[in-house]
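All the exercises in this workshop are built on plain-text protein records. A record pairs a protein's sequence with a compact description of its fold. Backbone structure tokens are a discrete shorthand for how the chain folds in space. Once this layout is familiar, the rest of the handout is easier to follow. As an example, a complete record with its sequence and its structure tokens follows.
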Amino acid sequence: MRRALALTVALLLLSCSDDDSGSSPTTTASTSTEAPADSTTTSTTTTTEPAPSAIALRGDGLGVVALGEVPDVAVAAITDELGEPSADSGWQPSGSFGACPGDRSRSVEWGGLGLLFTDGSTAYGDGEHLSTWRVSDAPPPVATAKGLGYGATATDAEDLYPDHVERVPAEDPFPAFLTIDAEGGTITAYLDEADSITNLEAGAGCGE
């Protein structure tokens, strides 16, 4: 009887020891921090086209300045468009540039674009004034209102100014040239053997 009772007590004690300890399992949350994906920033460079020059080759001037203008005003007008001149001869005896009107002449250049001033009388004025413009030798990107400029051909001129172009053949020592009834008056364009324009000019000019 005692052995049976002792066995029962032992079984009860064993049952109690097998109960849950009351502690809950601990779950560890693993937080993974991912580096943000590489983001490529596209740098967009906006190229602004320069405003077209207001200079236009005309029979009576250059758009921003007319033949007959006084030197300071004429030089300032072109400088506003093209920057400082690349050369300025100052006033020289007229023979320095050919048989020019007046006693003195002055040449001011922006690369291949040149202004010629005289202190004499021309159809454009008296005293010191702009008498001629000339284009030659890879000038700044200037042209007539219709787009005729240095390097164009005689055919281009005839296409742009139909029935307003006269061809004059070469006569030694002078090259062939065109007279073009363009905006504001007559422009003279000299040609090479391939009929490409190598020089343009308008105004009083100077003889040889």
Remarks:
- Confidence is low (pLDDT under 50) at residues 1-50.
- Strands lie at 87-88, 92-93, 104-110, 113-118, 129-136, 165-168, 177-182, 185-191, 197-203.
- The chain has three helices and nine strands.
- The first strand starts at residue 87 and ends at 88.
